[in-house]
Amino acid sequence: MKHFLRVVTQFFVFLYCKCLWRGLKFVIRRFTGRCELQRICYNNKPGARRTLKIESSMRYSKYELLQSALGVHPDKVEKTIDDIMALKKINPDTNPQLGISLQASLLQIVGYRSLMAVVEKLRREPYDCENAEHENMLMKLWKELRPDTPLTGRISKQWCEIGFQGNDPKTDFRGMGLLGLQNLLYFAEHDRPTALQMLQDSLQPKHNELNKPDWEQKNPDKAIG
Known about the structure:
By secondary structure, this protein is mainly α.
């Protein structure tokens, strides 16, 4: 029964999105004389809320031009906006602010999408101990966090002093890849006092004890070691 209700619900959602909502938008445009993008830009202040609505409108548009606009190169944003306004039959002379608003929002959209792609690429790139650049970043991290303590070797128990789990820190980058190392190094370089304080706090037994769950503090003999 639950499966049947789920299927019926999905059917009505599909029907609403594909038919009723598009029909409603057509009626609203006829009544107001404005397309959905115009209504979004005129009824919302500049900012994340408006940009998100514009992105959603373009993503679910029936026009391929609007869908593909979300992935255009930043250099082609202005030309894309002109094409969208032509497609929507919007006169740029009587709607000068619309083009500016759409361009600003689309630049934000393609910008953060590009950033997400770069971040995901870094996350998927594994740490390579044969890569000199990777090794240099790792050594630099040690110097930032332990400036007065020479590292005895590439494989060493000393790495545990700055939070790594074992003798070879490369094994700790399995989940986040090179992104994890870059974030740690950036933190250590640009906010060193905070990074050192956090490291010092994490090494204090009393601090660790306070961070344990209440049941573990009250029953230390039952804690899982």
